[in-house]
Design brief:
Elements: H1 6-24, E1 32-36, H2 44-59, E2 63-68, H3 72-76, H4 90-104, H5 117-125, H6 128-144, E3 155-156, H7 158-173
Parallel strand pairs: 1-2
Antiparallel strand pairs: 2-3
Length: 174
């Protein structure tokens, strides 16, 4: 939600990691950058920046959890399957997410982009395990076809970050 492009997100991730290392006097185990593809493929410069972000992340030891086309794809996967072979514009993702929540949670629900209350709805009513399975299926499809991340629509790697967080939670809580 920073409004930065993917390179700006990486720059912030690097700066925050450096600050935390300095303040704590310790190394940071992992650094993640989370961003959307959005409509970056519309111009050559934006497309190049998106591709450059993956190179810079690798060089900076930053893991990426991106969504193509938008983060709400991850939310939608909590409720239903998505066809990996058909590009899914964000307006369609928003509509499908709204319809899924209307069917399963609240018939009066209206999705408003940026409304953080959606997180509670997903947490309480969505199926995270199914979302992970579905996201892995999308990613497997695009990896199998060697699709570049910017062209891999629909796809999300948010599940990788979620699985990592779950493993740390399990380690420290159980």
């Amino acid at each position: 939600g920073s409004g930065r492009d993917c390179l700006g997100v990486l720059g912030s991730a690097n700066a925050l990691r450096d600050r935390f290392c300095k303040e704590s006097g310790k190394e940071i185990d992992q650094t993640w950058a989370v961003f959307d593809k959005d409509d970056l493929d519309k111009t050559k410069g934006n497309r190049e920046n998106f591709e450059k972000a993956f190179c810079e992340a690798s060089a900076s030891n930053i893991k990426i959890a991106y969504s193509n086309e938008c983060f709400e794809l991850w939310f939608l996967l909590h409720f239903e399957d998505v066809d990996a072979t058909e590009p899914l514009p964000r307006k369609n993702i928003y509509k499908r997410l709204e319809d899924a929540i209307k069917r399963k949670v609240d018939p009066d629900f209206e999705y408003e982009h940026g409304d953080s209350s959606i997180v509670d709805i997903i947490w309480q009513n969505g199926d995270q395990k199914e979302a992970i399975i579905r996201a892995k299926g999308l990613n497997r499809h695009h990896s199998g076809h060697q699709t570049e991340p910017i062209d891999a629509n629909p796809n999300t790697l948010i599940y990788k970050l979620v699985e990592e967080l779950e493993s740390w939670y399990a380690y420290y809580v159980y």
